[in-house]
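Changelog-adjacent note: as of this version, every example in the card shows the full chain rather than a window. The one below runs 175 residues end to end.
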Amino acid sequence: MSDDIARLLYEGAVAVREGRRADAQGLLLQVIERDEQNEQAWLWLSGAMEDPADQQVALENVLAINPRSTVARRGLDWLRAHQGAPAARAPAPASRGEWTPPPPRDADEVEELACYQCGAAVYSVAAFCWQCHAPIHCCNNCAFRYETRCKELQDLTSTMAQAGRNDCPWWRVQA
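Full-length structure tokens:
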């Protein structure tokens, strides 16, 4: 780990402990931009997020990097116990029969949406959020975020693949 990444990680962790969530998110996302496999950055980021769904994504990313992380597992268990299962994660849609993908989006279609990571207003044609640099065209920003069948068809089954930029032809802006 470079000195620069270590410094950003340390400052991000301090910001989380001091309750400066926005500062912590900015610092930790810089670490993740430079090293997306940084387990500690994802773990601290889970503590910097206010939205339980975002906390869950960060903790799932920790487990994608290190499936044996007891801290991430305890964090997910705590979220489930205190927040309940997110509504969108209710019974898997697979029980409703075969999934029919929608037709591909028109490449010229531009829609405004909120970044899943920081809530900034962005456009669907942007590659990354202007504020937090999270990828826009990813499963976490998609209307089918909790639909498992489309991810299987696109081989986007890992949390890391779903959080990263992808070229899924069925990507849609969340309503």
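Structural remarks: The mean pLDDT is 82.
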